[in-house]
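User: quick one, fold this
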Amino acid sequence: MSNGKQTMVPEIAGRRARRALREQPIEQEAIDRMLTAATLAPSCFNNQPWRFVAVTEPEMLGKVKEYLSSGNAWAAPAACIILAATKTGLDCSLNDSRDYALFDTGMACMNLMLQAQREGIIAHPIAGFKPVEIKELCGIPPEYTLITLLVCGYPGDISSLPEEKRAAETSPRDRKPGKEVICSNSWCFD
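Assistant:
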């Protein structure tokens, strides 16, 4: 909660799950900075359990896009899709069944998304894809969990999106009020 004296980090304040992309290659240096930012995330005992595959080669990118759900058809112009994977053995497994690999990989993905925001690139994480097929296509071993795909591209014209997606692009940022998700000192939720 803010005391009003400090401002929000611009990349956090400006990041949205945008979908309007234009067909334009992303410079390799920008992709490298995004991936490096991901690797700088904290992790349990510095295990760094994340594994990323950046797909940019047009033929392979086209094959990955074939395995996206129909609801993610907006991703067709993406210049890059980054696959984020891990396996539990790469990170801490604590005595109360807290396997940190997913959490730590999530933090790495957030770093990547914030660097993308700084670069002027949309990095939209999606869950709507066929993980088994994409893992096989990209050579990811079966014991890994393909957590998310980060659809990356430069902002495009929202008129290219279906009406319901256009509304989401321009609507105010919708977040639950703090009192619904934040407590002080002890649990306050029903």
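User: anything notable?
Assistant: Residues 101-119 form the longest helix (19 residues).
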